[in-house]
Amino acid sequence: MTLNPSFAHDEVVADSVSPQTFREAMSKMGAAVNIVTSDGPAGKVGFAATAVCSVTDTPPTLLVCLNRSASVFNAVMENRTLCVNVLSSGHDRLSNLFGGKTPVEERFAAASWHRGASGAPVLDDAVVSFDCVVTESMDVGTHRVLFCSVLQVSNGDEAEALIYFKRGYHRVGMAAAV
Ligand SMILES: NC(=O)c1ccc[n+]([C@@H]2O[C@H](COP(=O)([O-])OP(=O)(O)OC[C@H]3O[C@@H](n4cnc5c(N)ncnc54)[C@H](O)[C@@H]3O)[C@@H](O)[C@H]2O)c1
Ligand SMILES: Cc1cc2c(cc1C)N(C[C@H](O)[C@H](O)[C@H](O)COP(=O)(O)O)c1[nH]c(=O)[nH]c(=O)c1N2
């Protein structure tokens, strides 16, 4: 396919890569697994997320991509606060609980939490947690991209992190020798 720079984005996307092909390709992009929590006027919620990344350190900002059809969507948007809890290697069961159709109380009952500056639940034994306020957002396709200003960082002492790769959980710890 040759791309003409004058094409609009939608025209290029229409007949190119299918969602299935995209997902298959994305399954090969290993990513940290996070539980994103939120609390506030709309109540306590949380979901598993791999679509999280750093935007800029000035001001410290993360982005989180949230499917607008998720049961947690309205609550996160109303609360406008969230905490990105980076999971450690023993958290695969917790990730599945927060990634499925499990009721909210059952999700949170499976781990220990404390409150962050924003009021969102911070996972006690996370590798690291980023407590945030949602400052901006933008809809792209099925998802809302949330730009999150970091209020507070909590460092844990977990040695190994959880990575999602080829639809399965993997643990990483020691750096590879170079
Ligand atoms: N970014 C996301 O929204 C996202 C990411 C991972 C998993 N999931 C959810 O978990 C389920 C199982 O995922 P899986 O990895 O075992 O198999 P899968 O084949 O459904 O997905 C493979 C990869 O594609 C990407 N992906 C999946 N659904 C997506 C979506 N709606 N929008 C953008 N990217 C998406 C993710 O990187 C995922 O790891 C998915 O069907 C989805 O509901 C969603
Ligand atoms: C490993 C892994 C990674 C992700 C997810 C799942 C799993 C298992 N899910 C899906 C998300 O967690 C799920 O939609 C929510 O838990 C909401 O589910 P309910 O609508 O409450 O059943 C997810 N959803 C999302 O909007 N953005 C994301 O980055 C991810 N990443």
Automatic annotation (TrEMBL):
Leading EC class: oxidoreductase
Boundaries of every Flavin reductase like domain copy: 26-171
UniProt xrefs under InterPro entries: Flavin_Rdtase-like_dom, NADH-dep_flavin_reductase, RutF, Split_barrel_FMN-bd
Catalytic activity reported: FMNH2 + NAD(+) = FMN + NADH + 2 H(+)
MF terms (GO), sorted A to Z: oxidoreductase activity
SMART domains: Flavin_Reduct (SM00903)
Pfam families the record matches: Flavin_Reduct (PF01613)
Keywords: Flavoprotein, FMN, NAD, Oxidoreductase
Domain of life assignment: Bacteria
Enzyme Commission number: 1.5.1.42
Family listed: Belongs to the non-flavoprotein flavin reductase family. RutF subfamily.
Main function: Catalyzes the reduction of FMN to FMNH2 which is used to reduce pyrimidine by RutA via the Rut pathway.
Name of this chain's protein: FMN reductase (NADH) RutF
